[in-house]
Amino acid sequence: MQVRLVEQARDGDEVAFSELIDLDGDRCYAIAYRILRDVERAQDAVQQAFLLAWRELPRLRDAERFEVWLHRLVVNACYEEFRRYRRWSVNIRALPVDGPAGPDETVSIDDRDALEQAFRRLSPEHRAVVVLHHHAGYPLASIAEVAGVPLGTVKSRLHYATRILREALVVDRVESRKVRPA
Amino acid sequence: MNTMRDPDVTLAAWLDEGPTDLPDETRRAILTALPTTSQARRGPFAPWRLSRMKTTARLAIGALVAIVAGGGALYLLGPSQYGFGGLPPSPSPIVVPSQAPSPGQSSPSPAATLDPTTWATYTSTQYGFKIGQPPGWTVVPANRAWSFATDAQDWLSPAEDAFFAPDRSVRVAAWAVPLTDPQMNQSWPDLERWVVDYCQRTKNTGCATIHDRVVPLCVETRDCHPALLVRFADDVQAFGFGGVLPQGKMVVVTVARGESDSTVARYGGATRLLEAFLSTMNVWPPAYPESQDAAATFVVTGN
User: Fold this and answer.
1) Residue A167 with chain B: CB contacts under 8 Å
2) How many CB pairs under 8 A join A and B?
């Protein structure tokens, strides 16, 4: 079904494209939000990505690869949003926004805070790999396609980012025990 | 008490938190903009086709790393498109000729002069990359690593692999510049910022207007690592890195003549000459698995 919609949209069918937004818009937004950690920036990134997808769709040869292609546009839009945002808001820390998927009870407040801080120290490229792997569930080879980098780069980025995040959790737990002994 | 849980489970659970539904306002904004957003023409050079070739075949092609033109049309549309630097890479490994010689030019046919398929391959012992050496040209290998401290303002630096035309009238050079940020984002805008900074540090001219003169290129056909070609007043330079170069270095290739200099007219101009050299390059070091015949040993394991 998606292939047919892509082909129709490729020929300028706006209705078909709106159905593609319905099909994949949520996933794109979820990815963008998790990379940027900001609702408005994620909305901007997704909007830019979809409009670019609409414009460039006639050049997409393989309609079956639409989703990966679209996600690549989303990730690249996130990179740009991240850098634009960083220029004037380096000292502003947005509060986590809870949506339909609210706080997971398996994540303690301390863990959440530690992850939030550690994640914000990561580059957008590292964030994207973490989100695509741990949240979107992409295999590494697919992440390489989405991120537009070699597989080895994906592996090294994931390794680095995961280590930073794990260390943040470990440090947080050690500190928690010091402050609040059981 | 803080129970020790699997960090990956905690991380995944934390990532699952937060909004998951695209807000209606965003959906409406996209749909509202569609009628005023024209679609690109579908041409014979449709640039986006994700490869589904077997890994071995893909790696074999990847080993033929080339700096290719194209894939950056949107980049040229202006700053608002910068973020999409990873977009539509051209699948073509062909360097697109920039311009033909001007009418009336009494020079040999550039096509006859510049046939890179006949060139010998030179491997840089200093930097590891491979680059073509035209027949009759001589090469002076770099005798040390290039650095800002010693070479930034030396346009005839011995730290460059230099190629000289048979009559010594043209010098083409290639070298690698250490990156202060090896994790530099692989996007054209970031690369352009780096080039501007490099331009200033090397005391070149026209640094403030580079954006108006850049030509986006790709390094490596599969992933399209961004690269740039820039025409300066007195030379034409190309910048790029393959994402896997060791120690995070930027490859620079330059024709040390202005575009319309009479000495490069026989090649169709400095840009055309530079593009011919770029088309022969493999910026991956020999030790990188994909640059060897035994590329199949670089296993794509997926997850």
Assistant:
1) none
2) 227
Fold that domain B116-301 belongs to in CATH: Protein Transport Mog1p; Chain A (3.40.1000)
3-state DSSP assignment of residue A110: helix
Length of chain A: 182
**How distant is the Cα of A72 from the closest Cα of chain B, in angstroms?**
8
pLDDT digits (tens, 9 = 90+) for B193-242: 889 999 999 888 889 999 888 887 776 545 566 778 899 988 999 988 76
**d(C-alpha B6, C-alpha B10), whole Å:** 6
Let me know: does A161 contact A127? Beta carbons within 8 Å: yes
- Report d(CA B135, CA B133) in Å as an integer: 7
Could you tell me the CA-to-CA distances from A54 to A10, A34, A69, B46 in Å, in that order?
Answer: 8, 23, 12, 15
B11 contact partners, CB below 8 Å, separation of at least 6: A115, A130, A134, A162, A165, A166, A169
User: Bridge partners of B174?
Assistant: B161, B253
Distance of CA A13 to the CA centre of its chain: 28
Q: Which residues make up the CATH 3.40.1000.10 domain(s) of chain B?
A: 116-301
Q: Between chains, do A62 and B50 touch, taking CB under 8 Å as contact?
A: yes
Å between B152 CA and nearest CA of chain A: 28
Closest-approach residue (CA) in chain A for B19: A99
**Chain B window 189-228: which residues touch A at a Cβ cutoff of 8 Å?**
189-190, 223-225
The predicted-structure confidence for B255-291, as pLDDT tens digits, reads as follows 988 888 888 888 888 988 998 888 887 776 655 544 4
ipTM value for the complex: 0.83
Q: How many CB atoms lie within 10 A of CB A74?
A: 27
